Amino acid sequence: GAGVSQSPSNKVTEKGKDVELRCDPISGHTALYWYRQRLGQGLEFLIYFQGNSAPDKSGLPSDRFSAERTGESVSTLTIQRTQQEDSAVYLCASSPRPDNTEAFFGQGTRLTVV
Amino acid sequence: GESVGLHLPTLSVQEGDNSIINCAYSNSASDYFIWYKQESGKGPQFIIDIRSNMDKRQGQRVTVLLNKTVKHLSLQIAATQPGDSAVYFCAENNRGTSYGKLTFGQGTILTVHP
After folding, report:
1. Over the stretch B9-53, which tens digit does the pLDDT of each residue have?
2. Of B93, B82, B81, B90, nearest to B108 (Cα)?
3. Which residues in chain A are contacts of B100 at CB distance < 8 A?
4. Which one, A66, A71, A78, A109, has least CB within 10 Å?
């Protein structure tokens, strides 16, 4: 398919465990974004990658959160020592331009911390 | 910050009516705005955008109006259809500080009755 792909689609983990979420952007898209969406709320910005520039990490809520992207391909979001408040849908989007235009979202990973 | 939780604003309309969804944004420095539609279990889908040098932009069946004086954005949907039922989010961006960081509103639930 040609869309943004995220895996896994659902993840249940025990409090204190680490999780890794994956995003495969649309081929050729230079910009990649991670957002978090808690139940019934809007999206919260986490991190933004654009080409080889330093990522904008200003939205990461704590040092338990980190993300990497290799070139203009796959990105992984890692949450260490998960807490119950980390439960949310984590959404990834990619864009062919750095300015959010034509940003396409994946379907998200629903993370539940028990 | 926003903390509406599950009590999102709602709008119920009859099929064929016009719908108007409103959004108050927070940052007077924001210069780019987007409306997204999110159906249950899916990622947000781009609808229409507008830059701050415009006050109106039209798409197919949708119109976005921007009033920078009162920091207000609206989305008008003409001849609303049952397939338009979803949660609608506005998002703002200050391109002067970060292209990647969209700040989302709390969302409005639109229900279209046949």
Report:
1. 999 999 999 999 999 998 999 999 999 999 998 899 999 999 999
2. B90
3. 31, 33, 45, 48-50, 56, 98, 100
4. A71
